[in-house]
Structures are given as C-alpha cells and as structure tokens.
What does this fold into?
Amino acid sequence: MNSWDNWVEQTLHKLERLQLLRSLRPIYLRNEPQKPTTTVEGDDLQVFHQMQLWDRSSVEVHIPESTFQKWLSDIPSSGDEEDTRKFRKLLLFSGNDYLGLSSHPTIGNAAAKAAQEHGMGPRGSALICGYTDYHRRLESSLADLKKKEDCLLCPTGFAANMALMVVLGNVGSLLAAGKTPLTNEKIAIFSDELNHASIIDGIRLAERQKSVEIFIYRHCDMIHLKALLSSCTMQKKVVVTDSLFSMDGDFAPMIELVKLRKQHGFLLVIDDAHGTFVCGKTGGGVAEEFHCERDVDICVGTLSKAAGCHGGFIACSKRWKQLIQSRGRSFIFSTTTPLPIAAAAHAAVIVARKETWRRRAIWSRVQDFRALTGIPINSPIISLVVGSEEKALKASRSLLKSGFHVTAIRPPTVPPNSCRLRVTLSATHTRADIERFTTALSNCVNFQEIGIHGSNGYARL
It folds into this structure.
C-alpha cells in the first residue's frame, strides 16, 4: 500500500468513527407498462389529463431481496448482488420527481427521437460548439416560464449557483479602481443560513477573490436581515435565498423580501430548485405563487427535480446572461448538456405547463398528509425531526419493512441531534398511498411529539 492509499484508508476509518461514512443504495428498474410511442412536432406534444399506468413507475422501485436484507442491517450494498430473481417493491417517499415526469412517454420519446437523429449532439462547451437550436429552444421556454428576458442553461443546478456567485464576485473585482477592491467597492452578499450547499460553496469561492463580504442572516428572519442591511454601508448588495428549502420544506418569506428589496435596493436572487413546476398556477415557481415574479431579479432553477430530466438554468436579463456566460467558470469550462436531454427537458416544460392535474394532485396529497397526521405541513417536502441518529435510522428501517423508501437525514447534512426523516410527496402518489404510508409512519414516530423544520439556527457557511 503506497502512502496515499494509507492516508485515504486512515481518513475512511476516521469518517467511520465519526459516523460520517456514506454508501450508495442502488435500486433496480423493471420493465414499465407499454407506453404510446407517437410524437408530434413542435409544442403540440401528446399530453394526458389524468394519471396513467406508467406514471406509477416514477414512485415504484424494486430491489433484490439480498439488498433489502443488507439495508435492514445497515450494511452497504454495491448493487452487484448475483441473486436478482426475487425482488422487493418499494414505494418512494424520498425522491424529488414531484410531478412524476421522469416516466412520461412524451418526454422519453423526445429524448429518443433527438438521439436517433443527432446522437448526443456536439460534445463541447456551449461557448465553443456545444450550443444548438435545441438548447436555445429550451432556454426560451424557461425564460417565458419565469417571466424573464432570457435564460442560460448550465450543466446542473449546482453549477448554476456556483457560476452566479462567482460572477457576483467578478463584478466587485472588475469595477474596483485598484487591484484589490476597497470595502465600499466590494459586493455585500446576504445569505440565509440554511441555503443550499451550491450557494454556500459558490459564495466561498467568490470570497476567495476578496471582492465580496458575506453576511449570514438567521433562517427566514427578516428582522435580522433588515438589521444587517441597515448597518451595511456598501452600495452593491445582493440577497440570495432558497425559495423552498430542500431540507426543511418551508418557504422563504417572499413578500417581506420584496418589501426589503424596495427599501434597500438590493439584487434579489432565489434558488427555485424545488418550486419550479410545482408552485404557481402555470408552474412558474414560488415567485409566481406569491405574485412577485417581477420583483425577483435572478431565478436559478433545476431540470432534475419536477421536470424529471437533468440540468440547471439561470433565468435573468440579457445583460446578466452575457456576464455569466463570460465569467461563470462552472458554465464556461463544462461540456454542454447532451442534446437528447435538452430535447427531453423542453418537452417537460411543455408537458408540465399543460398537464395541470399534476400540480393539483401533488397539493391534494399535501392536504391528505396534513389531514391524516395533524402535522401542519405547507409543502410537498416534509421534514420530520426525530432527534438522534439512532432514532432516525430505526424509523427509516421500520418504514423499509413496511415497503416504503424514506431516507434518514443525518449530520453533516443537518445539525447533531436534529436527525430527521425527509419525506417527499409526488403527484403520482394516490390518497391510498398516503393512508398506507401515514399508518406505517405512526408506528415509528409520534405525530404529537414530532418536530417540524430544523430551524435551530444551524449555519453551514
């Protein structure tokens, strides 16, 4: 064993002692019900007005019996188990496919058609040869969805946030009179303490340019944010927040943020990863839900959740797009999204807007869960704080035995002693699914004692 192998081994042992070692949990995909294969050109794609048989494959998964037994014993599974004759079916209550679009035939057919006609498309960065008319159509549809002048596609939502945060730092450094920006030339970035890791990592990278000052405000605490804004003498201010928080399931106080924006003139940036297509009458997201789309300057989003595809985007003005594509390193130095994925995502935008029953269904499931448990949830993301890591793992195993896939969320994702079950609802869950699930859930957690949201001031920056 060479020196590096030895150091890696020691590091793994340390992570194991700290209970921070994680492993993959592979699932198996079975043959789905027969789907229609007809496609129509343009925006007149085939849509459906109620749930179909194939929709269930977005929430039903299978694992080999041997893997199932390993999971119950908390033993890592490689996915290479030889005995795959006997399977266990599990119902997913842990994914981010909120509308069930990952199994939609129109979206799959769009990807297949593009792949058959063009392969994967040009393999290069968008600035060299990777940007095609497929990518442009997708950007235009997303800009229209978000009521923005333009849109920039990124490889992932993580890359989108990284690119934007770095560009904010560039504004400070490029406009500075000298080599190093003075305090009043820097960018003041105000970030919610529970923002996504991609925002945090992007801010850290921007901070290394020595052109930004970071201010962390308590989770959704507008009094604290107002105090920080009022005491800040820097002219260029930015407030960045998740719109719907991925681990807590609560909304950013959009109305209060808009009021503060009018008072202090800051740039308002939201990460609408979990709200896009789910919230708002047309699926425009959290800003549409709260009727403040015009007050949000930049909206970052993803195509890997409710769109059922892959990729990220930044909806913004044409000026901001040109700046980000000129200075956003995670965009510039990444190969562009494969053409079939762009085609599928464009179809997903159209389907998500037209199949309005999916948004009605997911919010009906939210109401069902609230009525059956008495837990006052307000989104499809349900954060059930149970406390210790042992309690969370025990509850997850209990649900697994009952046929439900729910992951225990542990440190470092959440603070110590705030371990939780992160439950997510989908449009392709049924009322009967919720009834079965809440019955199983009641056997491992006490609804009267359960904590909602981990809003205990855990700053991860």
